[in-house]
C-alpha cells in the first residue's frame, strides 16, 4: 500500500482543489462580444498550472519513494496528543471568533486570553495565574481604549 | 523633487508624526529583538493601527517599524546568542562571542552604529535609483508589467530553499486567492453561493492569516521540541562610546561595502535581509586581512552583518516604489499599507504622490536617528523585553491579529477569513510549502490579471508578449530563474547525497 507522505498529501489536496474549482468555473458568466476573454479564463489558466505542478510533485514523490523513518510511526491518538497545544489554540481562536459578536469584544477577548495563556503557560502555580490575569485584564481594555478613542474604531 | 522632499519633511517633522516614528521604531526594535517574532510579524501587528491615519502618518509609523525591526535583531543576537530575526543570524557569529568576552556594550554599540550607517547609505541608494528606475519603467505597457510580475513571482518561488515546484505552486495559489469575488467585468467568481465571498478576500486578513498563524504555531512547536533556557542573562549593559567610535573609524570600507550589498540585495525580489546578511559577512571575511578572527568576536563581522541587514530597508523600497513589485515579505505588507490608503505603488507614484515618496525618505532618515537614540539609551530594557516567553506573546499577537482584521472594515467576516487562511497557512507550512511566494501572489494577483487582459484587449495576439523586447526579456529571465533554481536544486541534492555517502 502506498504511504501518504507530506508531498503526496499536498499534491492530492491540490488536485482535488483544482477539480472542484475547475467545475465551479462553469458557473462563471461566459465570454460575450465585448468581454471576449470572459472572467473564467484567468482562474482556469491558474488552475491548470496548479494541477500540473501538483502532478509533478506527486510523480516526483512517487519516484523518490518514502524516506526512512527517523522516529517510530505514531497512532492518530498519539499524533493528536503531540499537536494538542496547536490544535487547542486553533479551537480557542475559532471559539473567540464565534463569541465576539455575541458577548462583545471585552468579554470575548479576556476569555480568549485567559484560556490560551492557561493552555500555554499552565495553571499549576499562583505565579502563572497572576501573569495570566495581569496580561489579560490589562491588554484587552488597553487595546479597546486605543482603537475606540485613539483610532475611532468601534469594536463589537 | 527637492521641494516635495522639504514639504514631506515638514509633515514628517510634525510632533504627532515624530511620535509615531518613535513608537514604530520602539515596537520594531522590540519585535526584532524577540527571537521568533521577526520584523514581518512586528509590521503585521502595527499595520491595523494605520487604518484610521492619513497616508503620511501611516507610512511613517510603518517605516519606523522597518528601521527599528531590522536593527532589533542585534539585542537578542548579542545578549542571548539567538538571532531575533533571520536577517541577523551572522550578527550572532561575532556579537555573541564579544559579549561573552565581557564586552556586550561594545558589541551592541558597533551593531547600532553599523545599522545607522547602513540605513543612511540605503536611503541614498533609494533616492538615487528610485526615481531613475521609475522614470525608465514609465514606458512599461501592460505586456511589460505582466512579464515583470511573472518574473518576480518565479524569482521568489525559485529562491524558496530548494523547493521550486512548491514555491511555484504557492505563487499560483496566491494568485488564485485573488480571483474570488467580483472581477474587473463585475462578474462573480467562486462565491459558492455565499454572499460574504462576493466581495472577495481582503489582502490584510489573508496575509496575516497565512503568515502569522504558521509562524506563531511553528514557534510553539519548536518550543515543544526544543525547550529554550534563555533565562538568567545579565542585561546590565554600558556602552563604551569612545571605544565604539575608534572601532567604527577602522570600518569605513566594510560599512560602505556591506551597506551597498544590503541595498542591492534588498532591491532584488525574493532575497531580503537574510541573504544580504550572509553575502556581506562572506565578502567582509574575504576582504579582511584577518579572516581567522571572524567568528571569535571581531567588530568587522558585526559591522558587515548589521550594516547590510539595515540597508535592506532602503533597498527594498526601490522596486516597491518604482515598479510596484515588492521584493520581500515585509515590503509586500508595506505595499498592502499603501494600497489600503488608496495609493498604488509603481512608477506613477513618483509623479502622483511625490510628497508621500518624500515622506518615506524622511521617515527612513529620522527613523535611523531615533533608532540609534533608542538603542543606546534603552538597550538594557530591550534585552529584558527580548526574554518575554513565546507562551505569552502568541495569544496576545493572535488577539491583535483578530482585532486588526476586524478593524479594517468593521466586518466580523474578516476574522473568519483570517482564521481560514491561518489554518491553510499552517497546513501549507507543515507540508513545507514556502509562504513568501504565496503572499506575493496575493499582493500581485489583481494587478497581474488587470495588466494581462489590458494587453490582450489592446492586441489579441499572445505572441506580442514575445515580440516586445522588454516583455520578452522579462519572460526569458523568468524562464532562466526557473532553470537556474532547478540547477541549484540538483546541486544541493548531489551534495547531500555525497555527504550521506561520506557519512556511511
From TrEMBL, chain A:
<feature type="transmembrane region" description="Helical">
    <location>
        <begin position="105"/>
        <end position="123"/>
    </location>
</feature>
<dbReference type="InterPro" id="IPR009936">
    <property type="entry name" value="DUF1468"/>
</dbReference>
<dbReference type="Pfam" id="PF07331">
    <property type="entry name" value="TctB"/>
</dbReference>
<keyword id="KW-0472">Membrane</keyword>
<feature type="domain" description="DUF1468">
    <location>
        <begin position="9"/>
        <end position="156"/>
    </location>
</feature>
<feature type="transmembrane region" description="Helical">
    <location>
        <begin position="130"/>
        <end position="151"/>
    </location>
</feature>
<keyword id="KW-0812">Transmembrane</keyword>
<keyword id="KW-1133">Transmembrane helix</keyword>
<feature type="transmembrane region" description="Helical">
    <location>
        <begin position="80"/>
        <end position="99"/>
    </location>
</feature>
<feature type="transmembrane region" description="Helical">
    <location>
        <begin position="41"/>
        <end position="59"/>
    </location>
</feature>
<protein>
    <submittedName>
        <fullName>Putative tricarboxylic transport membrane protein</fullName>
    </submittedName>
</protein>
Automatic annotation (TrEMBL), chain B:
<feature type="transmembrane region" description="Helical">
    <location>
        <begin position="356"/>
        <end position="379"/>
    </location>
</feature>
<feature type="transmembrane region" description="Helical">
    <location>
        <begin position="391"/>
        <end position="409"/>
    </location>
</feature>
<feature type="transmembrane region" description="Helical">
    <location>
        <begin position="329"/>
        <end position="350"/>
    </location>
</feature>
<feature type="transmembrane region" description="Helical">
    <location>
        <begin position="196"/>
        <end position="214"/>
    </location>
</feature>
<feature type="transmembrane region" description="Helical">
    <location>
        <begin position="465"/>
        <end position="487"/>
    </location>
</feature>
<keyword id="KW-1133">Transmembrane helix</keyword>
<feature type="transmembrane region" description="Helical">
    <location>
        <begin position="59"/>
        <end position="82"/>
    </location>
</feature>
<feature type="transmembrane region" description="Helical">
    <location>
        <begin position="20"/>
        <end position="47"/>
    </location>
</feature>
<feature type="transmembrane region" description="Helical">
    <location>
        <begin position="107"/>
        <end position="133"/>
    </location>
</feature>
<keyword id="KW-0472">Membrane</keyword>
<feature type="transmembrane region" description="Helical">
    <location>
        <begin position="415"/>
        <end position="444"/>
    </location>
</feature>
<dbReference type="Pfam" id="PF01970">
    <property type="entry name" value="TctA"/>
</dbReference>
<feature type="domain" description="DUF112">
    <location>
        <begin position="18"/>
        <end position="440"/>
    </location>
</feature>
<feature type="transmembrane region" description="Helical">
    <location>
        <begin position="145"/>
        <end position="176"/>
    </location>
</feature>
<dbReference type="InterPro" id="IPR002823">
    <property type="entry name" value="DUF112_TM"/>
</dbReference>
<keyword id="KW-0812">Transmembrane</keyword>
<protein>
    <submittedName>
        <fullName>Putative tricarboxylic transport membrane protein</fullName>
    </submittedName>
</protein>
Amino acid at each position: 500500500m502506498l504511504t501518504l507522505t507530506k508531498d503526496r498529501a499536498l499534491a492530492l489536496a491540490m488536485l482535488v482543489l483544482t477539480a472542484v474549482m475547475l467545475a465551479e468555473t462553469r458557473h462563471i458568466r461566459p465570454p460575450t462580444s465585448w468581454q471576449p476573454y470572459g472572467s473564467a479564463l484567468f482562474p482556469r489558466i491558474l488552475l491548470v498550472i496548479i494541477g500540473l505542478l501538483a502532478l509533478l510533485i506527486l510523480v516526483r514523490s512517487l519516484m523518490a519513494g518514502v524516506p526512512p523513518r527517523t522516529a517510530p510511526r505514531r497512532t492518530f491518538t498519539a499524533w493528536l496528543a503531540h499537536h494538542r497545544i496547536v490544535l487547542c489554540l486553533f479551537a480557542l481562536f475559532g471559539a473567540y471568533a464565534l463569541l465576539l459578536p455575541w458577548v462583545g469584544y471585552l468579554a470575548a477577548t479576556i476569555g480568549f486570553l485567559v484560556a490560551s495563556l492557561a493552555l500555554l503557560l499552565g495553571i499549576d502555580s499562583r505565579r502563572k495565574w497572576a501573569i495570566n490575569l495581569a496580561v489579560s485584564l490589562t491588554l484587552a481594555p488597553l487595546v479597546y481604549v486605543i482603537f475606540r478613542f485613539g483610532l475611532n474604531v468601534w469594536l463589537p | 523633487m527637492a521641494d516635495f522632499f522639504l514639504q514631506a519633511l515638514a509633515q514628517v517633522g510634525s510632533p504627532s508624526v515624530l511620535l509615531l516614528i518613535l513608537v514604530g521604531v520602539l515596537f520594531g526594535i522590540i519585535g526584532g529583538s524577540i527571537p521568533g517574532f521577526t520584523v514581518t510579524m512586528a509590521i503585521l501587528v502595527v499595520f491595523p493601527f494605520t487604518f484610521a491615519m492619513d497616508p503620511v502618518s501611516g507610512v511613517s509609523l510603518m517605516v519606523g517599524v522597518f528601521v527599528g525591526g531590522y536593527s532589533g535583531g542585534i539585542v537578542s543576537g548579542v545578549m542571548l546568542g539567538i538571532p531575533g530575526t533571520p536577517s541577523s543570524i551572522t550578527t550572532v557569529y561575532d556579537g555573541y562571542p564579544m559579549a561573552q568576552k565581557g564586552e556586550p556594550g561594545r558589541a551592541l554599540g558597533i551593531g547600532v552604529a553599523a545599522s545607522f550607517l547602513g540605513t543612511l547609505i540605503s536611503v541614498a541608494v533609494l533616492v538615487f535609483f528610485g526615481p531613475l528606475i521609475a522614470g525608465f519603467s514609465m514606458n512599461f505597457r501592460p505586456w511589460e508589467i505582466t512579464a515583470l510580475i511573472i518574473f518576480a513571482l518565479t524569482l521568489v518561488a525559485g529562491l524558496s530553499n530548494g523547493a521550486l515546484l512548491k514555491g511555484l505552486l504557492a505563487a499560483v495559489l496566491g494568485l488564485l486567492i485573488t480571483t474570488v469575488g467580483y472581477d474587473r467585468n463585475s462578474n462573480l467568481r467562486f462565491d459558492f453561493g455565499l454572499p460574504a465571498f462576493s466581495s472577495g478576500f481582503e489582502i490584510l486578513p489573508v496575509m496575516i492569516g497565512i503568515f502569522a498563524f504558521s509562524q506563531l504555531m511553528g514557534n510553539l512547536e519548536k518550543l515543544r521540541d526544543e525547550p529554550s533556557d534563555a533565562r538568567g542573562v545579565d542585561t546590565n549593559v554600558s556602552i563604551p562610546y569612545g571605544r565604539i567610535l575608534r572601532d567604527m573609524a577602522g570600518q569605513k570600507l566594510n560599512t560602505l561595502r556591506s551597506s551597498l550589498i544590503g541595498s542591492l540585495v534588498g532591491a532584488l525580489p525574493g532575497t531580503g535581509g537574510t541573504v544580504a546578511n550572509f553575502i556581506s559577512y562572506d565578502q567582509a571575511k574575504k576582504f579582511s586581512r584577518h579572516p581567522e578572527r571572524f567568528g571569535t568576536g571581531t567588530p568587522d563581522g558585526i559591522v558587515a552583518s548589521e550594516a547590510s541587514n539595515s540597508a535592506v530597508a532602503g533597498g527594498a523600497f526601490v522596486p516597491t516604489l518604482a515598479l510596484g513589485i515588492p521584493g520581500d515579505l515585509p515590503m509586500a505588507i508595506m505595499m498592502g499599507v499603501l494600497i489600503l490608503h488608496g495609493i498604488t505603488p509603481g512608477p506613477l507614484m513618483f509623479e502622483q504622490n511625490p510628497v508621500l515618496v518624500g515622506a518615506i525618505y524622511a521617515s527612513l532618515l529620522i527613523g535611523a536617528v531615533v533608532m540609534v537614540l533608542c538603542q543606546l539609551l534603552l538597550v538594557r530594557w530591550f534585552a529584558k523585553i527580548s526574554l518575554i516567553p513565546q507562551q505569552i506573546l502568541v495569544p496576545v499577537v493572535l488577539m491583535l491579529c483578530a482585532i486588526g482584521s476586524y478593524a479594517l472594515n468593521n466586518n466580523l467576516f474578516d476574522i473568519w477569513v483570517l482564521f481560514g487562511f491561518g489554518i491553510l497557512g499552517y497546513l501549507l507550512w507543515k507540508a513545507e510549502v514556502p509562504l513568501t511566494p504565496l503572499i506575493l501572489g496575493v499582493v500581485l494577483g489583481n494587478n497581474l490579471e488587470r495588466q494581462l487582459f489590458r494587453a490582450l484587449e489592446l492586441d489579441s495576439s499572445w505572441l506580442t508578449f514575445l515580440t516586445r523586447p522588454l516583455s520578452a526579456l522579462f519572460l526569458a529571465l523568468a524562464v532562466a530563474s526557473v532553470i537556474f533554481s532547478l540547477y541549484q536544486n540538483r546541486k544541493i541534492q548531489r551534495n547531500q547525497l555525497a555527504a550521506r555517502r561520506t557519512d556511511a
